[in-house]
Design a protein that fits this description.
Number of strands: 0
Strand content: under 5%
Number of domains: 1
Structural class: mainly alpha
Protein name: DUF2892 domain-containing protein
Order of helices and strands: HHHHHHH
Organism: Alkalicoccus saliphilus
Number of helices: 7
Mean pLDDT: 93
Distance between the termini: 41 Å
Shape: elongated
Radius of gyration: 19 Å
Region (Disordered): 1-20
Helix content: over 70%
Largest sheet: none
């Protein structure tokens, strides 16, 4: 039986517009080309930067958790109607977990935030240039 749900590792890319995906892919290719002839220390610095780069999941989770906490505090202290915010955010997170898409995701991707797989693709290329796989 074929699943109607996208593969976990491909779900964000599959739900990103072609235009945004193309821009992110072009940036990845530029980075790989730029670093292709750099030395060990430069490659190591870039790999360290990639270790600290926030991916789509981290950005989405950080923003969602902030809004859930803020909405809960506002519901307790200002107006009970604010409880709507954590409920909506929870729904978005569930939708993202199942489908790989939720309303904030196109905005996150438009800002150039990459998936863990896209970051790993650059990491692998840089490690190859550095000679890690010999």
């Amino acid at each position: 039986m074929k699943s109607v749900l996208p593969e976990t590792r491909k779900r964000v890319e599959q739900s990103t517009s072609d235009n945004v995906s193309q821009k992110i892919e072009q940036e990845l290719e530029r980075n790989i080309h730029y670093y292709s002839d750099k030395g060990y220390n430069t490659l190591t610095r870039r790999l360290n930067q990639l270790d600290k780069e926030w991916d789509t999941e981290r950005v989405l989770e950080a923003n969602a958790s902030f809004l859930v906490v803020a909405g809960s505090i506002l519901a307790l202290t200002v107006n009970k109607k604010w409880i709507f915010l954590p409920a909506v955010i929870g729904t978005f997170l569930f939708q993202h977990a199942v489908q790989g898409w939720c309303p904030p995701l196109p905005l996150i991707r438009r800002f150039g935030i990459r998936t863990p797989q896209e970051i790993q693709k650059e990491r692998n290329a840089l490690k190859e240039f550095r000679g890690d796989f010999k």
